[in-house]
Amino acid sequence: MSESFKRTPTKMVPAPSHGIVPERDVGERPVLETRNLGISFGGLQAVDDFNLIIGKTEIAGLIGPNGAGKTTVFNLLTKVYQPTMGTILINGHDTAGMNTAQASKMGIARTFQNIRLFDKMSVEDNVRIGLHNQIQYGMASGILRLPSYWAGERRQHERAMDLLSIFDMEDLAGVRAGSLPYGAQRRLEIVRALATNPSLLLLDEPAAGMNPHETEELMANIVKIRDRFKIAVLLIEHDMKLVMGICEGICVLNFGKVIAKGTPEDIQNNPVVIEAYLGKRKEA
């Protein structure tokens, strides 16, 4: 990682329940809290007793070996899977029994490990799909093309362009999404997720396939997104330079169980993590 991006050290303090949060988020309701969360598929316990708390504006990491259960956790948080046990609170509200659309309205959005864009649609239209729950005109206005329809369309266009400006993608608004380079498609997926106006953004391997320069820009832009929208970010990532360079709190999974939680410094020096994930230290 080049020297152009530097993580500003964050003081992490104990939360009222399990875990730690950035000091700036003390006194604010956590954006996410999971209590004894778990799911089993047949006889396989994929995630077991998963407890995590994320502060209102925290950038957090979820790491672990392949098959540790990280994406399963994301699927539980977004209600793709219904948990076998435990509780998920988004901004203090229990999501029990909710579906994915309802969880989205609660303020949780995500990107995917494998990019899921509408390839044949334009860049702007992909973003506008994320804005669907913010349409302020009715069906009749849309059918009859009343002034309220055109005013709403103008607001949607302006909002989409504003979001695209985060990654300097305004000039690509009319381009077919499927024709974008890989890194640009990754960025577009993040913009579309932001269009849903989340309070918690889940990023599943956002740096996958990116070169070092693109990864460096991504790190700076994640901080920019957090600061601009005052939201929390939870990311799954295998690039340890990115994780240690940007995350304030990190949770480590192994075989579906949490084996460590703490600051980047805590995780880097945790012997259990070193053995399970980062690799055993060589004897001197």
Descriptive overview:
The protein contains 10 helices and 12 strands. The protein has 284 residues and is an alpha/beta fold. The chain has a domain at 1-107 and 199-205 and 233-284: Rossmann fold. The strands form 3 sheets. It has a 6-stranded mixed β-sheet, sandwiched between helices. Strands 4-3-6-7 form a 4-stranded antiparallel β-sheet, covered by helices on one side. Strands 1-2 form a two-stranded antiparallel ribbon. Helix 3 packs across helix 5. The model has no long low-confidence stretch (mean pLDDT 88).
Judging from the principal axes of the Cα atoms, what is the shape? globular
Arithmetic mean of pLDDT: 88
Strand order of the largest sheet: 8-9-10-5-11-12
List low-confidence stretches. Answer: none
Strand content: 15-25%
The CATH homologous superfamily of the domain at 1-107 and 199-205 and 233-284 is termed P-loop containing nucleotide triphosphate hydrolases
What is the number of E strands?
Answer: 12
CA(first)-CA(last) distance? 27 Å
Instruction: Please identify the oligomeric state.
Output: single chain
The radius of gyration over CA amounts to: 20 Å
Q: Count the helices. How many?
A: 10
Describe the sheet with the most strands. 6 strands, mixed
Looking at the overall shape, the CATH architecture of the domain at 1-107 and 199-205 and 233-284 is: 3-Layer(aba) Sandwich
Class of the domain at 1-107 and 199-205 and 233-284 in CATH?
Alpha Beta
Q: In CATH terms, what is the fold-level topology of the domain at 1-107 and 199-205 and 233-284?
A: Rossmann fold
Secondary-structure-based class equals: alpha/beta
Which H/E pattern describes the elements? Answer: EEEEEHEEHEHHHHEHEHEEHH
Q: What portion of residues is helical?
A: 25-40%
